[in-house]
Amino acid sequence: MAGKKLLLENDHIEGIRSLRVYRQHGGYQSLEKALKQMTPEQIVEEVKTSGLRGRGGAGFPTGMKWSFLAKPEGVARYLVCNADESEPGTFKDRYLMQRIPHLLIEGMIASSFALGARTSYIYIRGEYFYVARILEQAIAEAYEAGLLGKNILNSGFDHDCYVQVGAGAYICGEETALLESLEGKRGNPRIKPPFPAVAGLYGCPTVVNNVETIAAVVPIIRDGGAAYASIGVGKSTGTKLISASGHLNKPGVYEIELGVPVEEFIYSDEYCGGIRNGKKLKAVVAGGSSVPILPADLILKTANGEPRLMSYESLADGGFATGTMLGSGGFIAMDEDTSIVKNLWNFSRFYHHESCGQCSPCREGTGWMEKILHKILDGNGTLADVDLLWDIQSKIEGKTICPLGDAAAWPVASAIRHFRKEFEEYVKNGKNIRDVKHYYRLNNLVEV
Amino acid sequence: MSDQKVYRFSDETMATAERIMRRYPEGKQKSALIPILHLAQAEFEGWLSPGAMDYVASILNIKPIEVYEVASFYSMFNLKQVGKCVIEVCRTSSCWLLGAEDVVRHIEKKLHIKAGETTKDGMFTLKTVECLGSCGTAPMLQCGGDFYENLTLEKVDALLDKMKEQGRRRVYTKDDMVEL
Fold first, then answer.
1. A294: which of A33, A263, B7, B129 lies 20 to 30 Å off by Cα?
2. Which residues from A are below 8 Å from B133, CB to CB?
3. Chain B closest CA to A336's CA: distance in Å?
4. CB of A211 within 8 Å of any CB in chain B?
5. What is the count of structural domains for chain B?
6. Residue B1 belongs to some domain of the structure
7. Same-domain status, B26 and B95
8. What is the predicted pLDDT for the residue at A379?
9. Which residue in chain A is spatially nearest to B57 when comparing CA positions?
10. Do A168 and B129 count as a contact with CB atoms less than 8 A apart?
11. What SS3 class is residue A132?
């Protein structure tokens, strides 16, 4: 049976990108309800009741984040939407924004009303330029219909919403790096505290939320927080967009009720339809490239033999020893022919490329890890190199200003933890493993 | 460190830049830097020369170094001359799992350049880039503002041929999709 959909319920409807069709299907009724029947405090309460957790990756309770917002008299407050979707394996926000841009705009206005923000910005990664244009068209429609600007729907609430494009930097998905970038600077994360809730954009109190989080506020206002909380399992309430990719028969964006068994998600025809070309599943990265990789047996069942569910708690069951994280919901499946060592090198190159260079452990360590993996892939590694990799990752994790260091360390730690034999095979037999030359060449590609 | 060329936005681009600057509170116009660098890159042949960056600094009334440090941080800004079509092949994760390397190798062979280089006729620059958020439709590449997804080598051939035939510059700020 198909699960309940709250965000993508109408995404198949022709023309849903336009304001007219969006409104025909109930669009902007939540905003009307928020402005005419609710106080800002009531909206924050409903979001707290809903149990909604940040959908960008950290999973922090949204209502709590909102309630931290400082409200000094006479100081502007800002809502900033994090649309800098860059976590490898994640493409749900792009899908949502290009299909139903008004869902995000409606969420932005209603959330801004709840937070008392007169201005909001949607910071979208530069590569999504065409999506930024879709959003700008939607915003123009909203202004024309009196849904943005002065005295929205005669409520007395004024609000302006703008789209800001980035220019290619994974690090700007980190909320304080994003704020730096929005201020026209390099995307170097800030030291916290102070948190953005106290001193964010231009030093003013700011809430930064992911696209999907802000969109989820719309059904929460419409149906109430309790109704939202009744979906899902335990503290994993509501629905979640999963970006499914890799060796799957049906990759794509799926809205699931949190709590769907992983096995059902991978193999049922309703979702991913199994592994391509009838191959076996080898491993899964369940929440974007940063979360620990798990071998097939541990992603399908926990160490205790319980079926693993698509929820924050179930995916984390067993800690990092035998579990992983839901993260951004970037679900990457790898078939039996995938080389875990090569895949890890691909990830490590990514983190090396994307490290902002501010903290030494991350700036230096990511480069060392990439080089050592390259050496191992090239057939020149030793068993001591595997231990050295382990040592380096342990000296990055938790020792940097922002979580990019952790994100670079976890894939390395988990790959060695679960697939150490494969590393040893490369050490012993690397020169005979097919395609090694090719990887060597690829790694030497020069960038513009 | 300006070059000889005189940089100046067209009236239309200047109007866009001014519209963008009004989005921020008084005194915070530096926030417009990244959007305006995109405009400059589109207007001045797809790259940001020192002269172009100095011009952007003058528009925003900030020091040139504030522009250089930002332009050199973000991967979408080209600090060297590039071809009319910059082909950016995603090399990360799912694209890599599903054959991104074959795509890169194929384009290198077809255009007789390595990744990072520009063809002699100035038509194409080939770059490899990190995840572009199109993992469900891997492998993919971006050219200008457009995504080309679910690539096969045949599709890549058709795309490059059409681009060459049309001979236009493609920039991030414009939709200029080549139909496959």
1. B129
2. 85-86, 90-91, 93-94, 125, 127-128
3. 12
4. no
5. 2
6. no
7. no
8. 86
9. A184
10. yes
11. helix
Evaluate the CA torsion angle A397, A402, A405, A406 in order and state its sign: positive
Q: Which CATH number is A378's domain given? A: 1.20.1440.230
Scanning A233-272 for CB atoms below 8 A from B yields: 243-247, 251-253
Those residues of chain A that have pLDDT short of 70 are 1-2, 431-448
Mutate to test the interface with A, among B20, B36, B94 (most CBs of A within 10 A): B94
d(CA A292, CA A308): 15
Residues A416, A271 share a domain: no
> Domain range spanning residue A110?
19-230
B144 close to B126: Cβ distance less than 8 angstroms: no
| CATH number of the domain enclosing A146 | 3.40.50.11540
Q: Are A177 and A402 in contact (CB under 8 A)?
A: yes
CB atoms within 10 A of CB A142: 25
- Is residue A95 included in any domain, yes or no? yes
Q: Is B21 on the interface with A (CB under 8 A)?
A: no
Supply the ipTM of this predicted assembly: 0.96
How far apart CA A150 and CA B164 sit, in angstroms, is 48
Point out the residue among A160, A338, A346 whose CB comes nearest to the CB of B92.
A346
Cα angle at A131 between A125 and A136, to 5 degrees?
A: 105
- Which one of A230, A248, A273 terminates a domain? A230
Q: Is B75 on the interface with A (CB under 8 A)?
A: yes
CB A334 within 8 A of CB A296: no
Q: Does A440 touch chain B (CB under 8 A)?
A: no
Residue B62 lies in a domain: yes
Q: Are A188 and A285 part of one and the same domain?
A: no
- State the total domains in chain A: 3
Q: Is A126 within a domain?
A: yes
The reply to whether B92 and B148 lie within a common domain is yes
Quick one: pLDDT at residue A443?
Answer: 41
Mark whether A192 and A267 lie in a shared domain. no
Q: Is the peptide bond before A196 cis (omega within 30 degrees of 0)?
A: no
